Amino acid sequence: MNEKIYDMLIVGGGPGGYTAALYAARAGMSVAVLEKLAAGGQMAESPQIDNYPGLTDGIDGFSLGMQMQAHAEKFGAETHSTEVTGLNLTDKIKTVETDSGIFRGKTVVIATGATPKKLNIPGEADLTGRGVHYCAACDGMFYRNKVVAVVGGGNTAAADALLLSRIAQKVILIHRRDSLRASRVYHKPLMDAENVEFHWNSALTEIRPGEIVINGEENIPCDGVFVAIGRQPETELVKDVLHLDASGYVLAGESTATNIPGVYAVGDVRTKGLRQIITAAADGAVAVHQAEEYLAEV
Predict the structure, then answer these.
(1) Phi, psi of 189 (to 5 degrees)
(2) How far apart are CA 24 and CA 19, in angstroms?
(3) Mean pLDDT of 9-23
(4) Which of 38, 261, 280 lies closest to 138, judged by CA?
(5) 12: which of 31, 45, 220, 226 is 20 to 30 A away, CA to CA?
(6) What is the model's pLDDT at position 38?
């Protein structure tokens, strides 16, 4: 066991986790980030990020993640490349079990993120980031005046299709049912959009460079595919101790506070209206503010 008791332990090294690490370290707190993979989390898979303020030339997600890590470490934050295997969050001094030992902290930030659900069809993995995407707000601008497909029928798919209809030449909306599951507010705008084409009772069965295959037989020219069939929050470690919503996200409002004092949830893992790099970073800053107030009282 690492005998040191940190002021803050952060599980996950995405933009929310490393912003929390930066703010905590600059506030004089001892802080460690526990990350099993590379810095950046899901962001690291993005080949180009153009909507983070101040980066006028854009940046790839891996590089941005490494810069966030270096920034936090400049002020004293530690990074430990290790996988978290267990948590005890209810005691005053909380413990985090990892494959390289046990860490102890006065506060814990859960920044484990959420993973987009995949179609698991031929071509999807090979073309991810090069024609296959999971966030229209992030990558839609690459398809100005081009043909794109959106897969799904819920609110995310409908919102993505609407956004892309203002950018792309044509949007092909593919849904396995005969009507949208999305809220009614999306229906009329989508139906009225002249460049949105619907494929009902359909399934995307293969993605190839420059074209898609629907229902195993219909080949359609297409420049890009946006998969919008939901996300899976990474909450397996906390599902028995933190309150979750019906979709499995940690119930934490704009304060990022969870049902356990001294434990905070930031970024894509928590309940929120918009999951973007900048909103995850904002969560990280808020969590440190809340943690400072908590530590001042215990």
Answers:
(1) -60, -35
(2) 8
(3) 98
(4) 280
(5) 226
(6) 87
* pLDDT the model gives residue 1: 59
Measured CA to CA, the distance from residue 147 to residue 243 in angstroms comes to 42
- Of 235, 265, 247, 271, which Cα lies nearest the Cα of 16? 265
Over its C-alpha atoms, the chain yields an Rg (Å, rounded) of: 21
Tokens of 157: 């798919």
Residue type, 78: E
Amino acid 138: pLDDT: 84
Within the chain, how many helices (H) and strands (E) appear? Answer: 7, 17
Q: What is the reported pTM? A: 0.83
Short-list 248, 244, 254, CA closest to 279: 254
187 vs 208: CA distance, rounded Å: 29
Residue 296 in tokens: 């001042």
Segment 102-120 mean pLDDT: 96
Kindly report the number of other CB atoms within 10 A of residue 179's CB atom.
11
Most confident residue range from 56-65, 124-133, 281-290: 281-290
* 94 SS3 class: strand
- Rounded-to-integer distance, Cα 82 and Cα 101, Å: 9
Catalytic residues: 135, 138-139
> Which whole-number Å values give the CA distances from 19 to 12, 110, 166, 275, 291, in the listed order?
11, 13, 32, 15, 14
pLDDT digits (tens, 9 = 90+) for 126-164: 999 899 999 898 899 999 999 999 999 998 899 999 999
**Cα 154 to chain centroid, rounded:** 18
Buried b (16+ CB within 10 A) or exposed e, 188-197: eebeebeebe
Tokens coding 131: 């024609």
- Residue 216's contacts (CB-CB under 8 Å, 6 or more residues apart) are 205, 206
* First-to-last C-alpha distance (Å) of the chain: 24
Alpha carbons 264 and 268: distance in angstroms, whole number: 13
